[in-house]
Amino acid sequence: METLSGFDTPSARAACPRPRHLCFTLLYHPDLRRVGARAVAAFAPGYTVPLSRLEPEFAQPGSHDHAPLRDPHLSRQPHLVTWGADGWITITPAGRGHLSVDGEPIDETRRFPPEALSAGLVLQLAKRVVLLVHRAPAVLSAPRHGLVGEGSALEDVLMSVARVADLQVPVLLRGETGVGKERVAQAIHQASPRAGRPCLAVNMAVLAPNTAASELFGHARGSFTGAHQRHVGLFERAHGGTLFLDEIGDMSMEVQAMLLRALETGTILPLGDSEQRAVDVRVIAATDVDLEQAVAQGRFRAPLLHRLQGYIITIPPLRHNREDIPRLLLHFLREELAQIGELSRLEPPAAGALPWFPHSLMVQLIQQDWPGNVRQLRNVARQLVISSRGSDAIVVDASLARLLDHARPTTQPAADAPRPAETRIVDAPDDEPEVRGAEREIDEDALLEALRSSRWAIGPAAAMLGVPRSTLHRLIERSPNVRRATDIPMDELMRCHDQCAGDLDAMSARLRVSKRGLKLRLRELVSAGQAREK
């Protein structure tokens, strides 16, 4: 068989354009193992995709194990999603109350403009399954190199990694804080011919100016007070491999000059030494600041910037890669749960049981802005696991509610769609239409799920549902299945107190009321008893 030499290399494949198709990615399913699975409609615009319990079939990227959604709560009658020749998306629901798009229930055919596919449309089916409708390549071909995710934004980064990995040029990684620039640097190293050699990293922001030169280039014995022996710098230790310089914008002007010389000549001069040393090091630098502005302000050397940006890779923020938020979250949850021996929490629920991780929380997380990006998402996963340790239901405590409130929702509805209620703790006037709309949308199951997951605390439950506290109080008033601590008869309260040996957490779980409300009720009873004794 005749082949074209070099055509099937990673760098050659990376150069080939990849057509993008209409794609449905599972953001949530009661069986969390299915999160991230895809159904790709590899057809020309104008094709209609039926969406139901039975179709289409989904598979994890790279897998041939296809299966429909199969959730018994979903209708067999399909919703219809059409990608028109004009680029608009038309969605026709199967019936009333079964489909929401970007948080808003739709009961009739709606059209969404082409730009809606850029961020993706979030579809909720029967409050059980969450999908992202977006455009993506039919086949993901870039090696992952340990990076978690299958989203198009990450795929573009990995294709850039494949293009530059085997070249000996410096790389500059640009992106917001917390996007994972060091992970991308490691991926470049692993994909390069230097993979078997050292890959060292240093954060320039934590190095004092008087020690940065010594850390990078080393120093000779006696070169300064306290230099009792020769110190081998990072450049020498990384010889033959890769050196990752994070926060390069925080490097002093003096050290910048030394780094520029090392890059231009391939040699270093340790402090206090008279002998140049040749080094073979590939430098990858990273920053979240505007280096061009720093050059204009005289804080960064223009020649060094030109030398560092032999090839630039811009890493997008997490909010531009929503399809990977559930994948990353579950990856972090698995790591944290494994540490405390509770990995079984993520297993599929028994028949009739609620999943440990509720769909409403996943929807809220998908809609956040994530200014701290992947680092912030990891913190949320850790907070969830620790707060829920030993609990049968995931717990959204006040600390997590604050974390989420600071991660501002970002979902922008389509141009012809009313704006849905924001997923934040806000006190909005009762007569605002978006508040009333959200109140009508929350059914009894969603109310009970949020209260149970938040251990019956009003603030965190309101955060999960994306409504003000006042709205949640009205829902509780109307619910036949929820009561307040003040509604509990005294004999039941005292009996529970004895059975739980006064443990407020156990009492709260058994009586299904908030711990705070329970504490206030008990305090009132004690005060009333003391008053009677007087």
Q: What can you see in these coordinates?
A:
It is globular, with a radius of gyration of 28 Å. The chain has 20 helices and 17 strands. It has 4 domains: 18-137, Tumour Suppressor Smad4 (Sandwich); 152-314, Rossmann fold (3-Layer(aba) Sandwich), CATH 3.40.50.300; 319-481, Helicase, Ruva Protein, domain 3 (Orthogonal Bundle); 487-533. The strands form 4 sheets. The protein has a 6-stranded antiparallel beta sheet with strand order 2-1-10-9-6-7. A hairpin with a 3-residue loop joins strand 9 and strand 10 (129-137). With 534 residues, the protein is an alpha+beta fold. The protein has helices at residues 10-15, 116-119, 152-164, 181-190, 209-217, 234-237, 253-265, 291-296, 302-308, 325-339, 359-366, 373-387, 398-405, 433-441, 444-453, 458-465, 469-478, 490-499, 504-511, 515-533; strands spanning 20-28, 38-41, 48-51, 79-83, 89-92, 99-101, 104-105, 110-112, 121-125, 129-137, 171-174, 199-203, 242-246, 267-268, 277-278, 282-287, 311-314.
